[in-house]
Fold each of these.
Amino acid sequence: MGKRILMIEDHEDNRRILRDLLTSKGYDVIEAENGIEGVSAAETCRPDLILMDIQLPGIDGYEATRRIKANSETRKIPIIAVTSYALSGDDVKAFEAGCDAYVAKPFSPRDVLAKIRDHLVSG
Amino acid sequence: MKSPPLILIVDDNPTNVEIFQTRLAANNCSIITALDGEAGLRMAREHLPDLILLDIMIPKMDGISVCRRIKSDTSLPFMPIIMVTAKSESKDIVAGLEAGGDEYLTKPVDHRALVSRVKSMLRIKELHDKVHEQSAQLKFQLETATKIQTLFWPKIPELEAGSRIWATSLPAAYVGGDFYDVIVLPDASLLVYVADVSGKGVPAALIMAALSTKIRIEAQQQNEIDALLATINAGTHQLISEEGFFITIVLGRYWPGTGKLQIVLGGHLPPLWQGKSGAHQMVFARGMALGVSPDSRYERNEIRLSPGESILFYSDGIVEARDKNSELFGSERLTNIAANSKGPPFGKAVLESVRLWQEGAPAADDQTILEIWREEKSCPY
């Protein structure tokens, strides 16, 4: 079975673009539309990696990351933060919240593949 | 309609003509007459009567043929025709109506029926003329509005460092609800956007005019485009939403010298970036359309255009253009055009492909494109 990736992203169009690419590369993709759903899916589905959008309705991606990293059952899952604008300091905040890497929007899904591979190997 | 109304009587029987003439003249109508089909047709074309009383059995050209010729000549104004036929010939009545006749009378003619049918047909003629006149006025106003709308399109400035901008907007109706602008900010960066008001025609164009002015004013106060869009949404939300509209927008701020480009999306399709590694769909930070919620917040995306790269802002009329089988042009075709072009610009090629795609089918939506690109530096030696 392919590695399982949890994608937490509130915009359907963005989920579609990522889903199309990741499934075509053999990954098993599960999706959550907000932070609460995402934290819960991390606990129940135990993905191999999480792509975490930061701007989410309800709790944001930083808070969702903190909750996932605070749970000993899910702490080891690598999280790649998807920030909107890295220069504004989102990258620093992402690392502080416990993210393992970040990618700034806009990005091509191809650009994120290498990062996903790196973190799946090291994880 | 003429005053008094002008009626053409076409009948080969002088007694009938005289009876009709006397009756109708007593009802304040001017009368002209013809005794055969050819003369009737000629007089109809020459005098453009308000009504024709047309006997079917007449020499040289029968009434059915005269009727068909008048009704099929689109250069003639609407002239109601009452077919006159012998009572026994019911198939003539059907043939007369199928040839475009509007009413019929049977002989021997009941004089009260004659006068009331003539009056009824003249009322229809008058209404028809009024509608025709109003539609001509409306067309004139729309043509004027279309000319005025082109005054909103900005003059695109010359840019440094090989940066170029090209934009165009093709309305589906006379005036469109799509718009774009290029505004030079005090630090020589440019504010550019493509926006699309839901709906088309005059109401959409008026909303467009209001919003375009608002953006030009606010842009002088607020340069950060995420905050600018939030301010514009908050300031126009009530106006837009109360009238049942919403507006999608892709707004960018571009620094021509360095190629830096910031983008915010308000419910609009993300732009297509043709980078060094090709053109493909990208994950953008997105926000809500204007007029949806008064406190929408927006996130900035940032890219850098290198020489030889291009970015295309476009409205949904591009990807939702349909061919004659109703198939959508689609974002994949759009991406392929960019991917297969040798280098920027490719906006004109996109428009041309869309035009060919929808050949034979009417454009259902406004189509707008704004492209920013940097020319590839070439070796001068």
Amino acid sequence: MSDKRSDRSYVRELMKSKSGLFGLVLLSLLLVTSLYVLITIPQSEAYKWDNPGAWQGNPVSAPPAWVNYFGEDAPTTVSVPLTGWTQSVSGSIYTYTVTTSLVWNHAVTPSDFSVTPIFNGTAYEVSITWTKPDGTSIPIVLTSPSSDSFYDLTASSIQQSIIPYIQSQTDSYLSSVSPRQELAALFNKGGPSILNDSVEQGTYGVTVQVIAGAPQSVSSLSKLSLVGDSYGSMGTDSVGRPISLGVLAGLPWALEIGIISSIGSVLGGVLWGGLSGFFGGWRDQLMQWGALVILALPALAFLVALSYSTPLTVLNEALIIAALSWPFFAILARSVTLSIRSQTYVEADRAMGISSTRSFFTHVLPRLTPVTIAYTALSVPAGIITAETLAFLGIEQGNIITWGGILNAAITFDASVHGWWWWVLFPGIMIFVASVPFVLVGFALDRIVAPRVSAK
Amino acid sequence: MTSLLETKGLRIYFSSPRGDVRVVEEVDLHVDQGEIVGLAGESGSGKSTLALGVMRLIGTPGRIAGGEIRFNGTDILALKPDEFRVQYRWSKLSMVFQGSMNGFTPVFTIGSQIQEVLKIHGHETSELAVRKLLQMVELDESIAVRYPHELSGGQKQRAFIAMALALDPQLLIADEPTTALDVITQAKIMNLLKRLRTEMGISILLITHDLALLSEAVDRLYIMYAGRVVEDGPSNSLFAKPKHPYTQGLISSTPTLKTEQIRGIPGFMPDLANPGEMCSFSLRCPFVMEVCKTERPRLGKVDGGEEVACWLY
Amino acid sequence: MGYARFIVGKTISYVLALFGAVSILYVALFPTMQKVIEASADEAASDFQRTLIKGHSGLSLAQIQASVATYKASYLSAFGFNQPFPVKYALQMSNLFQFHLGSAFFLQAPNGSKQVIDIIVAYLPNTILLFTTGTLLVVAVGAILGLLAARSAGGKLDRSIPIIAIIHSSLPTWWIGFIMIAYFAYSLNILPSGGISSVPAPTGLIAHFADLLSHMTLPLASFFIVNVGGFAYVIRSLAVSTMGEDFVTTARARGMTENRVLFRHVLRTASPSIATQSILAVAGSFGGAITTEVVFRWPGIGYLTFAAITANDLPVIVGSTFILTVILFLGLYIGEMTYGLLDPRIKTGD
């Protein structure tokens, strides 16, 4: 009796099952997105990830922008370009000035403030005149700004200019203020209660003046940013990194580790278990014992410890995970092989004098194929989750972004304590989204392949 | 006198993607008090399913699609499941299964399982009762403390028969009780069954494909093919002069000491999902006629107290 | 007799397997282990030096230093440090199995000891408490769910189990914990967000116990939610395949109610496999221990390992990996023995 079905019929059956079809669709979406990510997000972004300075200008620990639709007032970052600089020369002093304005109609202040006039030289002084809607002007001066052409004046860098202003309004002494307090001062009506929450809505004027000792040319990237309280589709973490970038960038690595570890462990395990069941006798016992040894190693702990002896790359991490996961499939393949072996055609082969190796490849291995494929699909999520769990514990290859790594940062910065739910939710959902298609396809395949036992 | 067991027009169907598979179709049979009745046929003829149907053990995707089953006059199909379970199943009629090798639960001893049967039906559960049952099937009382896997095939079969007799049933259905056993054990079990009838008055419905077995044990027998009864009658006349071509084929394919050549019956069974309006055996019958292919013959009485469903008669 | 042979055979097999696994661990961690041993030697040597200076002030500095050097050399040779590999292997493995795990770089036990074994022993009970309770819950509820699902094969309960199993296969346990903390501990503020007891710890046995329970609730819940579905699915499959066997049909034929067939005959027959699965579940859950403990700041061996990773405390990492391996083996061994105990086919010798 032939129990082999053509591969095409398996695919057809898979298409017929609703969940299998859905899984296949999701799977192709994942692969396409992954390719998209690999193409559009260059490796340089990943390096940027580890460099906190690269993310200035993003709001810190900000929820996704769409919370505004749910009644929250969390403005996104407002950027105003600084163009139209006028140059005036007096002797060897070159003065560059630009005036612009912006409208602020939110009930909350921005979370930070960033003025970046980009010049190609050094300047003696950068000053900003901040004009409130009611006409009051606040001069902010920064003399001999530290280094080169990229002056990034944020709230914290202009502290020393703001404090006198606040003191003049409240008549009290302050040694330092927080960025929020500075912004409160800048956006408040003025007067003794200048540090309270009320915001004066309206048009604010900004005049930026740069005094340099040599001619400068201004970049068109100069801008004034009022950093908001929300960002993007998934918010930011405590350094200002967009979660959505992390979530997308983590996809190719997760898939890579999951697929490689899955193929490695299933193929290795099936071969091991298949041969073990096929040989029988002492070879079988020995191979079973070998599988037991590996099975009983506590995978996570072992991986953790191993990472201290070998630096991890995506590839060797996947292979090590595979090297620890194959016993499960060996046990499975062995029991399938035992039942195949008792079928007469294997006996017949032996009687005819056909070598056992050949018998293994012609009879046993093909019949193990459907199970192999089903389990390859099913074990990809395990590989992904193991890899992300390791990353969560801080063990991962450098220079790549992983969802586990993002969650590691989340727990280090106490995200759940602060209620920054987006930081925790989206990477986790992504793990789920990456795993589910494989699980669906795997279960559908498993149902097709495994003999159905109906309870009567 | 009402029969002990009587089926009328019994139909058991299994639903499948291709439609209903008619495993048992329009079967009338009866077993009277004190009889041993045989039910013969090849694999797939529906005989085991019939037995399961009588015990109301048909589960999805199968179902009893029509007909009556009467036990001592009562329509047992009309009973509620719990009523049947408590009042009839195993207590009035019990069954010895094909491959009773696996009929015992592997994790309990033989004795405890027999006791369990006694207990759940409210009978006395002493070790003595168990010992008596085992004695009835000629098994030593030490069997009671053994686990099923420690017994030989023949011992298991006999132990199962003991368990089937525990509640003193009136009817015992024996489905292939001797398959996979050696000839000597076969003979022992057949003798046991015969003794059960003569000494204890238990009626037996003996189901098997082995005609030789039936020929020396049963009073009457039914021949089933493709879910239907094609011939039935008293055993001596049926065996002496088989009428239906299928019966003839069956008998001649059973070797005797004098046979020089075994003739099988060529061909295969029809598709039970789409039987069509023709004689089920027409595809293989050596005497097939035109009418056989277009109309289905019904059981009709012939001499010798027999009935045959064949256009030859 | 068969059973005795079974026990002896399996025990030998497991002991050898443990040895094999630890050897693999050893080889994989070889460079790390040498560093750990060296550091231990340094630590022991400086302790010795302190003792010498405090106690025997009659010795000159050079004499003390010579003593210390000898001490350190003998310490290292106890670990076969300057010997060829086979000797190293034998000595260091035997030290491992005697639980001489050295002293930690940075961490220490609550009682102040810096010995790795003391640190581990201090934290291990918390892990056992949390995870054994959790696994018992998962096994008990999961087995019942699985059996009920098998009984109504194809029914509503049965169809929802695969969905739960799918979720279980696609989500990391610890992430659910994260979410639950955010919701229950912070939004609703009804349960503690982590740790094992409140600060300050409540006095009185009942208050203490209640406090412990409230701290266990969220970790248990997240552990349970993620694992029960998968376990129920495994049990369901076991039960369904058992129910396909002949004796189940005959059991029904013998006049038993469906409940009796399921909860006595099927359950009992499948119980060796169920027991094995349960033990595997316990043993496996120790792996997940690391991460769930981290999320809930539960002071067990998992959290200890995480702290060790953060602090780069190699001796603790090596030590806890070793202990976890031994525990896992113990679990699997108990599983095999339980299987043999429950399956009469093995007990009476087959």
